[in-house]
Specification:
The structure is a homodimer. Chain A is mostly helical. Chain A has two domains: about 80 residues, Arc Repressor Mutant, subunit A; about 80 residues. Chain A is built from seven helices and three strands, in the order H-H-H-E-E-H-E-H-H-H. In chain A, strands 1-2 form a two-stranded antiparallel sheet. In chain A, helix 1 packs across helix 2, helix 1 crosses helix 4 and helix 6 runs antiparallel to helix 7. The radius of gyration of chain A is 23 Å and the shape is elongated. Chains A and B meet through helix 1, helix 4, strand 3, helix 5 and helix 6 of A and helix 1, helix 4, strand 3, helix 5 and helix 6 of B. Strand 3 of chain A pairs antiparallel with strand 3 of chain B. Chain A binds a DNA duplex (28 and 28 nucleotides) through helix 3.
Chain lengths: ~180, ~180
DNA sequence: GAAGGCATGTAAATCGTTACATGATTTA
DNA sequence: TAAATCATGTAACGATTTACATGCCTTC
């Protein structure tokens, strides 16, 4: 019973006691979203699939048409199997800011500095959001990971900004035209 | 002229002097892959699109059927526009290991420890790969980012492993059964 | 002349976001 | 009673991976 990426969060959240798609979305947004997101467009079809596969069971509709589910014994088994699985654990990292920095020599220094500045600000906002979630009492290790990562990332971009400024002072207007290889 | 995600690397690599899809793939694998990948299935159609849009121009076929491109003036403009763009810079982070750690209480401690161990080993391998690329003489800042990130990540997972071991000593067999909320 | 690396390309399948449509219930 | 929030769902599009098909060129 191979779980799809979205099934992993959805089934896990149901196992933790969440009952509806809407609940799952709300909790995901405040917990796993940073490293494992899920949109409504994925959650609702996934709940239907999981029910069809017998991993969760949906009781009748509650108030406001809420469709409440709970995990089944088979669902619990599938979840444990995944949690114990030795298969390589998916990892993906994508950063447009880094890509721009990589092609840095193709752009004037002012543009590079502006980008670095924006990255620093974005990291500050995310850190503030994480602090807020922390303040609500969450002690999840995953949150600690998020906070530590953002602190490190913020620091890297600040140092990057400083390096660019130093370079701007030495060579105020670097060449932006790339020479062709012959 | 909105550039697709793949167009950003492809056009950038052509601007840096790479000539064919095959070359781009090889260079990407040793430079941006960690934060911005591209597969053949994306690169070749993207080259065709970029040529159709006039951002690159393909000369005739070289040896072994090589199809060589170079950037046009319009392509250079499009690239600079993107590099200077203030739009939010895409960022994505996905870690199945963290998701498993988040649902940790649903699994026996041995499974959690095994996962942490695997993560530590994976990070050690990636770090070794980065060191190898560094040894080849690359000084790209993006590589420094990769090395520093992996060092930090490796350290986090080692600390996580230690925390799990400490917990295993105190409570050798924690409950794995989740209580339902009523 | 066989093997292996160079090189381009397509097709299928999956994954994920976004926008939209719809309606119930609570609150100002 | 209007607005906000709760709640489910679908459709369209775009991004991405993987597997496959094909042929050239060099080296052993």
């Amino acid at each position: 019973m191979e779980l799809s990426p979205t099934a992993k969060v959805v089934l896990g959240m149901i196992a933790l006691g969440e009952r509806t798609g809407y609940d799952i979305k709300r909790v995901v947004e405040r917990s796993t979203a940073f490293f494992w997101g899920a949109s409504f467009g994925q959650i609702y079809p996934e709940l239907a699939r999981l029910e069809g596969a017998g991993l969760i069971s949906g009781s009748s509709r509650g108030p406001r048409g809420r469709k409440e589910y709970e995990i089944t014994a088979a669902g619990r088994r599938a979840l444990r199997t995944w949690l114990a699985s030795p298969e390589p654990q998916a990892f993906a990292f994508r950063s447009e800011g880094l890509l721009k920095a990589f092609f840095g020599d193709l752009a004037p220094i002012e543009d590079r500095l502006a980008n670095a500045r924006r990255l620093v600000e974005w990291n500050e906002h995310v850190l503030a959001l994480f602090r807020e979630i922390e303040a609500e009492g969450s002690t999840a290790e995953a949150l600690t990971y998020g906070v530590e990562f953002i602190k490190w990332n913020l620091d890297w971009w600040r140092r990057h900004e400083r390096r660019l400024k130093a370079r701007a002072r030495t060579r105020p207007r670097p060449e932006t035209r790339v020479r062709h290889r012959r």
